C-alpha cells in the first residue's frame, strides 16, 4: 500500500522559509518521479514542483521558480520542498504525489502552509 506522509507545514511570516518533507513507503521510491502540489481555498490543485527518480531533473511552476527547491533522498525514501521568500499567495495545503504504475495517482494527507503577518 502506497503511503505518503507530509510534514513541516505551519504559519510563517512573509519572506520567511519552511521545508516540507514527504516520507514515502509501500513502493519502490527510487524508481518513481515525485511531485509536490498545492491547493489554495477556492482554487484547483496545482503542480508546484517535480523531480525525477535520481533527482537529476527538476521543474517548477512559474510562480515559485527561484524561491522553491525540490530535492529527494532515496536512502530515506523522502522528498523535500524547501520554500524561501514565502508570499501570502503561497498559502495552501501542500500535497506529496506519485503516479504509481498500477495504483495510479497517490496522495498524502497534505500539510497546511499559511503565510501571514
Quaternary structure state of the chains depicted: single chain
**Approximate helicity band:** under 10%
Number of strands: 11
Dominant shape: globular
Mean pLDDT: 97
- In DSSP terms (H or I, runs of 4 or more residues), the helix count works out at 0
What is the N-to-C succession of helices and strands? EEEEEEEEEEE
Protein model, in words:
The protein has 117 residues and is mainly beta. The chain contains no helices and eleven strands. The strands form two sheets. Strands 2, 4, 5, 6, 9, 10 and 11 form a seven-stranded mixed beta sheet that branches. Strands 1-3-8-7 form a four-stranded antiparallel beta sheet, with no helix packed on it. Strand 9 (92-100) and strand 10 (104-107) form a beta hairpin. It is globular. The mean pLDDT is 97.
List its traits.
seven-stranded mixed beta sheet; 117 residues; 0% helix; globular
In short:
The chain is mainly β and 117 residues long.
List the helices and strands and how they pair.
Elements: E1 3-7, E2 10-12, E3 18-25, E4 34-39, E5 46-51, E6 58-60, E7 68-73, E8 78-83, E9 92-100, E10 104-107, E11 111-115
Parallel strand pairs: 2-11
Antiparallel strand pairs: 1-3, 3-8, 4-5, 4-9, 5-6, 7-8, 9-10, 9-11
